[in-house]
Amino acid sequence: AEAAGCRLELRDGYQWLTYQHVEGLSYTVARALRAFDGVQRGMIAGICGYNNFEWPVVDFACALAGLVSCGIHTTSDCAAVQHVLQTTEAVVLLTTADTILSAGHRAKRTTSWALERLSLHTLKALKHVVIMDMTPTELEAMSTTPLATLFPHLTITSLLDIVALQKPKANPHSDLQHDSKSDPAPILDRTGSGDSPSEPTSTTSPTSDPVPRLASTGQTGSNPDSDPQPLLEAPDEQPEGGCDGLVTLLFTSGSNGPPKGVCVSAKAFYADISERAYIEPHVTASYIPLSHSSDRMKLWEFLINGGRVGFAYYSATNWADHETTKKTEDVVSFGTGCNNVAGYFSQVRALGPTAIACPPRIWNGLFHIYCDHLSALGYNTPEDAPAEVLAVASAQIRSLFGPRIRALVTGGASTPELVLQWVRGVFR
Asked: What's the mean pLDDT in 189-193?
């Protein structure tokens, strides 16, 4: 963001990007995507990565460019990702650096699949890869084999390449008239915000030496520096096909056979995100993978309502456990222990959301924290503890959400009734 010339706004102790900044970044990326060789309106663009501001920026960019976005789960294995890319005939893949190289070239991984391990010769439509959180030069420094050798038929570039050497363009169709000093800021720059992945590095830490915008590993591709970038259609002319045209494809995780896809039209997508909200300030935390519909729709909905969305890190391994547990265990157990929620809530508390949604895994983890607190005081069950002790334990749980929480939502699976009653008691 800083490399793109965006001045980050400080609010509630966090650095935020304004609506104006996000629009500029999204429009710049949209024009670059449409300038890639062979990329035309209506084609498919896959998106994969942990929750950070890059994900919605490229999602918005796909919408502005008239491309059909397709979320790919970080928890999917190679077979599932191969199936999605091949079935959709995706021409562009926007992804994080840890999905590129296999464990043989990169020891630390936060995803279950790697581009290097896919049968790329069968993915005839795929031509371009955009790394969302690292430059190809930085990635190649971690590899024992040149990227050009690994991916001879792909053009590999990065978001940093796209924006660092090109001042973000204003959208000529925009009616935004925001003052960046007072504009409510939508996207959190979560650099230094607590429990975050040790890698890959954030785009807020660019390399000192600029790299070519399109660092080709094979095909030359269309360079936005030398080729005129296309003027995009007006947003109300997207997608191709109007209200009945495709906006996005949603796929299951593939934990029960090949991933199953659903086509989402513009009409259906807009219906999902157009509900009005009446909480002020309207702030939430995004941490459920944006390849799922729930957090992604919530993000769009919050921004449409003039709200803010901050990003918190909850490792992909937790979501892999979540997917496995909800299919193999009694939903009442739904994970054991605290489910690694403590680090996540240290970020939530700092963010101070007014509304947040949690699947059963999160609520159950909080319930275990509550019970562990009582156990440390010598009480085996909540029924054994006096009212004043329960009040202190409940206050501890409430404090994890920060001082502004006003709305709680559960979903994704059935939350145990015992836990639901406990949540209601804690927040009543």
From this structure: 38
